[in-house]
Amino acid sequence: LSHSLSFSQGRVELGRLLSVAPLLLLLLLLLGAPPGSRGQNDTEPIVLEGKCLVVCDSTPSSEPSGNALGMSVRSGTGRVAFSATRQTNHEPTDMSNRTMIIYFDHILVNVGNHFEQDSSVFLAPRRGVYSFNFHVVKAYNRQTIQVSLMLNGWPMVSAFAGDQDVTREAATNAGLVIMERGDKAYLKLEKGNLMGGWKYSTFSGFLVFPL
To answer: How far apart are alpha carbons 131 and 59 in whole angstroms?
Structure first.
């Protein structure tokens, strides 16, 4: 009887050992695995010493400029810049006393094609902060001139030139303005005249950053 009990107890102990064997095997596998492979899922970072990884954003921004690893990369279509100059002295026939817009006959830079040479008006392609500067030369003219940077018909920045003892003088200024899409910027002669011409005058602008 005692022999039968011992045999039965041995079978019970063997059964218990076999039942925990898979757990022990799994524990050994986990302990022997590399530290970087335990507890990882799709949202946890991958840690590899001495390796360079290219990380892609799984939730890309809807902005056309894009964003990766905190660095803003602006697309080519977002670049806006222009620079125009006056290469002749004579006044164009389409410049009337009604508008007094200062016209430019040569384009140096027109990235995005948002500056219209015929009208000498810049048309904003999107909302943003824009930088403008101008240098309007009056020649053989003793009258004081006032030149203003206009935004949709309103003066934003003005400059004056009125020295009577020089043959050439320039009204120069610059500034930053916020423009909405479709806004127009141009130069206007608000005082005096440019009957002696305005050769060597320049008008430039560019998008600093969108809003």
So the answer is: 33
Give the pLDDT confidence of 103-157 residue by residue, as tens digits. Answer: 999 999 999 999 999 999 999 999 999 999 999 998 887 888 999 999 999 999 9
b/e map of 34-70 (b: 16 or more CB within 10 Å)?
Answer: eeeeeeeeeeeeeeeeeeeeeeeeeeeeeeeeeeeee
What is the rounded distance in angstroms from the CA atom of residue 184 to the CA atom of residue 27?
72
The ranges assigned to domains in the chain are 2-43, 79-210
Query: What pLDDT score was predicted for residue 85?
Result: 96
Is 123 within 8 Å of 182 (Cβ atoms)? yes
Of 196 and 19, the structure prediction assigns the larger pLDDT to: 196
Token pair recorded at residue 79: 């670049």
* CATH, range 79-210: 2.60.120.40
